[in-house]
Specification:
Shape: globular
Order of helices and strands: EEHEHEEHHHEEH
CATH topology of the largest domain: Ribosomal Protein L13p, Chain: A
Radius of gyration: 22 Å
CATH class of the largest domain: Alpha Beta
Structural class: alpha/beta
Distance between the termini: 43 Å
Strand content: 15-25%
Largest sheet: 3 strands, parallel
CATH superfamily of the largest domain: Ribosomal protein L13
Length: 189
């Protein structure tokens, strides 16, 4: 008798003529894409951060490597004052029992967007952890490659109030692009 998950095939035994289920190993799309080493470069310029994060998470779960460029240009829709208050409050949340084990929200745009994408992956499972390792997020475009823009993540024309991720991070304490010169940009990994 076969155990585990996967497709089952029926096989007749020659002596007893009984139907015995046999486990068939199938790798699926994820393993095929991972072996092929497909890589997608996505431009976050003027993309709504939440939609962008969900699309990137889906691509990662399909086994592709993803590099997101121009992370600081992703946008959040809504009242800018409320957005700043919300994320300052998130950064100030501390556990009374052990403040060191509290959730941590980064100030830097590439790490901030990476954290958003992490929230949309099943990171407690092996598939989610492997997908998260295939993600790279950059401030600016150090790759000098044109990234593909996701049309699903673009805002509609009716959005009037919004804030870029770079502006939000400056309110949280990010110092700006001083540390990220074109030659020395390190990806968040």
């Amino acid at each position: 008798m076969a155990t585990g998950k996967g497709k089952m095939e029926k096989k007749e035994s020659e002596k007893t003529k009984k139907v015995i289920p046999v486990h068939v190993h199938s790798k699926g799309k994820r393993a095929a894409a991972e072996k092929a080493g497909e890589e997608v470069v996505i431009d976050a310029n003027e993309a709504i951060a939440g939609r962008l994060a969900s699309k990137v998470a889906k691509i990662l779960l399909n086994g592709k490597r993803v590099r997101v460029v121009n992370a600081e240009k992703a946008i959040f829709s809504g009242n800018p004052k409320r957005l700043v208050e919300k994320y300052i409050q998130c950064r100030n949340l501390k556990s009374k029992q052990n403040p060191e084990k509290s959730p941590k929200w980064p100030k830097v745009p590439n790490l901030f967007l990476r954290r958003l994408i992490r929230g949309m992956l099943p990171r407690k499972k092996a598939v989610g952890r492997a997908a998260f390792k295939r993600l790279r997020v950059y401030v600016g475009n150090p790759l000098r490659e044109p990234g593909e823009s996701l049309k699903e993540a673009k805002p509609s024309e009716s959005i009037e109030r919004f804030m870029t991720l770079g502006e939000l991070c400056k309110h949280l304490g990010w110092k700006g692009n001083k540390a990220t010169s074109a030659a020395g940009v390190k990806p968040s990994s």
